Request: fold
Amino acid sequence: MKVLLFSVCLIFTGHICFAQHETSIDYVSFYKTCDSLNSLKKLIELDQGIIQQLKQLDKKTPYNFFAIALDFIEKNQFQEASIFYQIGVVRQTYYIEVNKNYAPNDDWMVAESMKTISGKKLFLYLQTDPNNYLHVLGLATDYCNKNDYQFSSKLNYPDKYQNAINKLKDLQADISKNKEQFKKNWELERASLVAKKN
Reply:
């Protein structure tokens, strides 16, 4: 009975989150916010507050990382949201690999919905500053290298844990190697999205 109630609550929560966040983006306003944040020239660091919050999430299922990311997005705190999102991606990738019963189930479905919704804005934000994007990816991989996912310890499947981290590192290496081309493509995408709203 408890399992059934938990599953219903997860699905209900997912539907609420999806309904609240799945709205069209005002790209003109959104990019103004991005530019304003980028103008501060301040790169995020993992202070003790963030690390403590991440370690608490490391005791929980992956969807919790994306839930926190969505909360930060609501406050236009895209830097913080990006950290929790990227680490959440690593945690989810690893957990899917080591727990074949996880996908698809209720927690997985909620996590996927939250990941899709939060990623929609976060990728566009990160793409406005490739150097910041690389910085965030670096912080996320560094955190995952140094901190175990206590909910499903890396000690049980060290190779699969490292593979999940490597996917993020590969993305970081690709952006670093082809930064100018990525920047050009992202600027074209931005112009196209803004033009659609005019």
Remarks:
- The chain has one domain: 2-196.
- The longest helix spans residues 78-98.
- Residues 2-196 form one domain.
